[in-house]
Design goal:
Radius of gyration: 26 Å
Largest sheet: 2 strands, antiparallel
Number of strands: 2
Order of helices and strands: HHHHHHHEHEHHHHHHH
Strand order of the largest sheet: 1-2
Helix content: 55-70%
Strand content: under 5%
Low-confidence stretches: 232-245
Shape: globular
Length: 299
């Protein structure tokens, strides 16, 4: 599946397979771990589809949680496709797509891994991470008047260049914004459902008071005359079906139960209290300032 000569789609689920292997027998792999990671790197150079790249990046994200030092040592000892280290290659690909990653558990794995990489570099003053520069924010020029579709198609994209640690920081703020929006939306939906249930209960009480219970024919009494759907062949309904479909390895991972909004909030609040925070805050956009202000960080 990781053979570079095969289609990238053969690696569509290999990231999950490799991550599971690493979580169960990682330390016992020995030299085979390096061979495995070399194969993942080779496949990443081919990958263009988001789902494939996400699965491959998650292999390295999982190792950040379990074998960070070994991972950094390996990636800095192996050259990437451009001649720079494989560490720069992996982080460039990872950070350029992080905002597109999907899946609640997968998002937790990759985002918390970025937090750990950022914290590691700060605590250890790791120059291997601090020396990497990648694309930061896209630059939109207003000096050329109205941007038509044709202008956008022909004009070359321009980006700021920032340290990879600053890019990680920006991605963490972006994910916090996503989490706040998602949780707010869930809360609103739950409130609407509760309100609908209250109305239905009130309507049922009014209908019950107005009607004669001896003459009332309920839907349940009509359905009782027929066999339950589960008696028919080909119909397999299991109330626990959704739970059974959950990835058991993910369910057993402590990250699965992490409240990501709370985790990122506390991480950023602690980071903002450090004397070196100005290195990061100097790169804030207006949107990032607004997000940070919601958790009490004003810059």
């Amino acid at each position: 599946m990781l053979d570079p000569r095969t289609s990238e789609f053969t690696a569509a689920f290999v990231g999950k397979l490799v991550s599971t292997l690493l979580s169960k027998v990682g330390p016992a792999l020995g030299e085979n771990l390096e061979l495995l990671l070399r194969a993942v790197l080779s496949k990443m150079q081919q990958a263009e589809t988001l789902s494939v790249m996400q699965n491959l990046v998650l292999v390295f994200a999982q190792l950040v949680h379990t074998q960070l030092d070994a991972l950094l040592n390996f990636l800095t000892s192996v050259p990437g496709p451009t001649g720079a280290s494989a560490l720069e290659f992996v982080l460039t690909e990872w950070c350029s797509r992080q905002h597109l990653f999907y899946g609640a558990y997968e998002t937790k794995v990759s985002t918390v891994a970025l937090c750990k990489l950022l914290q590691h570099s700060i605590n250890s003053n790791d120059s291997r991470l601090q020396d990497i520069q990648i694309k930061g924010d896209q630059i939109f020029s207003t000096s050329d008047g109205i941007l038509t579709r044709s202008k956008c198609a022909t004009a070359p994209e321009r980006w700021t260049m920032v340290p990879v640690l600053v890019k990680m920081y920006k991605l963490i703020i972006n994910e916090l914004s996503n989490q706040v929006e998602t949780n707010l939306s869930k809360s609103q939906i739950e409130d609407e459902e509760d309100e609908e249930n209250d109305w239905e209960e009130e309507d049922n009480n009014e209908d019950g008071a107005a009607g004669d219970s001896s003459e009332t024919v309920t839907l349940l009494s009509l359905l009782d005359k027929y066999s339950p759907a589960s008696d028919y062949s080909g119909y397999d309904f299991d109330g626990d079906e959704e739970e059974d479909e959950e990835d058991q390895d993910a369910l057993n991972d402590p990250l699965y139960k992490v409240n990501l909004q709370q985790y990122l909030t506390e991480f950023l609040q602690q980071l903002s209290q450090q004397p070196y925070y100005g290195t990061f805050s100097a790169h804030h956009s207006d949107c990032e300032r607004k997000v940070l202000s919601t958790i009490g960080i004003n810059t």
